[in-house]
Amino acid sequence: MDDAGESHTRLADAIEKRRLDLDLTWKELAELAGISTTTLENIRRGRLPRARTRRRIEDALGWEHGSINAVLGGGQPTVAEQGSPEDEQYSQAGYLAAILNEHAEKYGEAVLQEAWRLREAKKDGV
After folding, report:
1. Which letter does DSSP use for residue 50 in this model?
2. Among 99, 89, 97, 87, which residue's Cα sits nearest to residue 56?
């Protein structure tokens, strides 16, 4: 496999690992990133995402911006320090609620309330 093919495989593997770590489906990841599942499929097949799409994927995965470029260059992605799904206060439900909060008009108040209820329930171990 050539260098470009290896870097594309590294990227697909890194995204897959992080997606599984976050317990997200491909559809959920696409929704969080605001992209189509087809876009994710294309990336998995070796097509490089545009800069804007890279930032969206990095945000959805809780990576610092530039992580995709780091992976393509042979490095590792960096988990964002603030707002990362790895942080205790940002459980998966809390992370999803934060994303929904950014889009309150689109998703509506009822969905936001349910997301925060789920976040609190997860914090309480329910």
Report:
1. P
2. 99
Global pTM?
0.64
Judgement on whether residues 98 and 49 belong to the same structural domain of the protein: no
Report the 3 state secondary structure along 87-124.
CCCCCHHHHHHHHHHHCHHHHCHHHHHHHHHHHHHHHC
Asked if the structure places residue 53 within a domain, the reply is: yes
Do 9 and 65 lie in one domain? The reply is yes
Question: Cα-flanking dihedrals φ and ψ of residue 79, to 5°?
Answer: -70, 130
Q: Do residues 58 and 13 share a domain?
A: yes
Q: How many CB atoms are located within 10 Å of the residue 36 CB?
A: 12
- When pLDDT is averaged across residues 86-103 and rounded to a whole number, the result is 56
